[in-house]
Amino acid sequence: TVVILDPSSVSTSAGLTPVMSSSYSEGDIVQPQSSNSIPSTSADVTQVPSLDDTDRFMHIACLLINVGSRVLKRLLLYHTVTPTCTLDQYLANKRIDIDNLRKRRIINKSQMDILFPPGASSNLGDYDISLLSALFTNIVPNISQHELNMIQFLRDKRNEIFAHTKSVTVSSNDYQTFWNDICKTLEALCKQCNDPDFQNEILREIQGIQVSTVQ
C-alpha cells in the first residue's frame, strides 16, 4: 500500500480545515469504480462565504498545494505502478535517467534524497509539484502532451502565485480566474486517472475548500 500524505501546513496554519490524507492500493489504481453525481467547483460568488484578499489567497494555496499535489501523485501512480511493478521498482528502473536529471540540474540533491532515501522506500507524500512535474516531463514516457501541458500549467501557476508573490493576498477578479482555471485543470487530470470515485472525492474536497474561511 502506498500512503499519500497531503501537505497540510498551509491549511492548518491558516485555520482552514486540513485536507485528509488518503491511502491507495497500488493494485487498485487502474480499476475504476462507480461514482455518484459530481459537484460543481466553479467560483460562483453567490454560493461561497464573503472572502477578503487573504481568504482568497489561502483558498488558492490549498487548491494548488493540497489538492494539486494529491492529483499529480495519483496520476503518477496510474502511469507507473502495475500489479508487477511498485513505484520504488519503477524509479530503480529509471535510475540512470534520474541521475542524468541531477547532473543537468533539473532536480536537486534534496529531491534525489526524496526519490532514493538511504535504506528506505520513497515516500510519495514528500513529492511536491516541482518534483512531480520533473518526473512527468522526463521519465514517464507514456504520458500525453495534453497531460504534460496541464501539469506544467499547475507548476507555472504555483510559481506565479507563490514563488514570485510580494503579499499573501489575491484580488477578487484574480481569484475568479485562478480558481476556475485551476479547477478545470484538476478535473481534467482526475479524469486521466480513470477512477470516477477518486474524481468525485477530489471535486468534493475542492468544494469544501471553496466554502471554508480563515478563522
Uncertain segments are 1-39
Rg value = 17 Å
The helix/strand series, from N terminus to C terminus, equals EHEHHHHHHHH
- Termini separation comes to 35 Å
Q: Major sheet, described briefly?
A: 2 strands, antiparallel
The count of β-strands is: 2
What percent strand? under 5%
Shape field: globular
Number of domain modules: 1
If you average the pLDDT, what whole number results?
80
Distinct helical segment count: 9
> Helical residue percent?
55-70%
* Helix-strand makeup class: mainly alpha
Organism: Sinanodonta woodiana
Pfam family, one: HEPN_DZIP3
Domain DZIP3-like HEPN: 86-140
Protein name: DZIP3-like HEPN domain-containing protein
Name the features:
215 residues, mainly alpha, globular, 9 helices, 3% strand, HEPN_DZIP3, 2 strands, DZIP3-like HEPN domain-containing protein, single chain, two-stranded antiparallel ribbon
Describe the structure.
It is a single chain. With 215 residues, the chain is mainly α. The chain has one domain. Helices cover 57% and strands 3% of the residues. It contains 9 helices and 2 strands. The chain has helices spanning 9-14, 53-80, 87-93, 95-103, 109-115, 129-139, 145-163, 172-192, 196-210, and strands spanning 2-4, 22-24. The protein has a two-stranded antiparallel ribbon with strand order 1-2. The protein is globular and about 50 Å long. It starts with a strand and ends in a 5-residue tail after the last helix. The model is unreliable at 1-39 (pLDDT under 50).
